[in-house]
Amino acid sequence: MSQSSQELITEIELAERLGVSTRQVRNYLKNDSLPHIGDGRGRRFEWLKVLEWYLLYRVAISGTGGNQRDVLAEKLAEIRNSAASRAEALAADTHRRILQRETAGLKLQMEELRRVRGVGSRRLRPRGR
Q1: What is the domain-level CATH number for residue 25?
Q2: Of 40, 62, 99, 101, which is least surrounded by CB within 10 A?
Q3: pTM given for the model
Q4: How many domains does the chain have?
Q5: Integer angstrom CA distances of residue 42 from 11, 45, 57, 90, 104
Q6: From what superkingdom does this record's organism come (predicted)?
Q7: Along the 129 residues of the chain, how does pLDDT read in single tens digits?
Q8: What domain range includes position 51?
């Protein structure tokens, strides 16, 4: 996946999505190597990479290992599939909107053509008939 197609979010957005404070996000950065990108405007976070890191982090600190790790891996796969589905749905919706605009334009052209032809054909008919 190219960087341009990855969803980059801010520290505030990340805190909201994880359900933690921005202070906790900064603690993760300082103490626990939270993945991030420095881009000149501050830190940005790749949502899927952070989510994977966070789920593995939660498993590690809970100490339960095995079963919970499998459940979290399945959840991560669901989230990734959901993100891919959203991207596909967005592309399909964009394509649908383009087709609707083109169709609407063609309908207007057809109506205008019918209107013009209708006016023209009335003029060509003899008056007595």
Answers
A1: 1.10.10.10
A2: 40
A3: 0.46
A4: 1
A5: 9, 10, 24, 28, 44
A6: Bacteria
A7: 444 457 889 999 999 988 899 999 999 988 868 888 886 778 899 988 898 888 888 777 776 555 666 666 777 777 777 777 777 777 777 877 887 787 777 788 888 888 887 755 555 555 565
A8: 1-63
